[in-house]
Amino acid sequence: MEPMILEDAPFDTDTRKEEIFGPVILLYSYNDFKEAVMEANNTHYSLQAGVFTCDLNKAFYAFQHIEAGGVCLNDSPSMCVDSQPYGGIKDSGIQREGVKYAMDNMLETKVLVMCNVGNASYF
């Protein structure tokens, strides 16, 4: 599939309602930033989001309010570094990928609770 940009795709189309695994970006323009963030959350999927702005207040607002596994500022949401947690929420998944998460999946967590361990002898 050739890369494509879909501008103002209707909200009731599959391109808007379903996850697209391909070189496709949906592009919408808004006059109100908070409205754009609200609309970005209007989906069952939430892998990654890309926000393009030079305004740090808007960037932090987007990070705090966009319901996605990650928010990329001024880059496409396909950008990933191996050491960063990568994954989605909602119907896009519940786990993260990355070195730390792979190691956690290979470990067995175990807890030891100790009480009255002073000079007492139980053996």
3D architecture notes:
- Belongs to the aldehyde dehydrogenase family.
- It catalyses: D-glyceraldehyde 3-phosphate + NADP(+) + H2O = (2R)-3-phosphoglycerate + NADPH + 2 H(+).
- GO terms for molecular function: glyceraldehyde-3-phosphate dehydrogenase (NADP+) (non-phosphorylating) activity.
- Keywords: Oxidoreductase.
- It comes from Selaginella moellendorffii (Spikemoss).
- This protein is an alpha/beta fold and 123 residues long.
- The chain has a domain at 31-105: Aldehyde Dehydrogenase, Chain A, domain 2, CATH 3.40.309.
- It has four helices and six strands; from the N terminus they run E-H-E-H-E-E-H-E-E-H.
- It has helices at 14-17, 33-40, 56-65, 99-106, and strands at 4-7, 24-27, 45-46, 49-51, 71-73, 89-90.
- The chain has a two-stranded parallel sheet.
- Helix 1 links the parallel strand 1 and strand 2 (24-27).
- Helix 2 packs parallel to helix 3 (56-65).
- The termini are far apart.
- The model has no long low-confidence stretch (mean pLDDT 80).
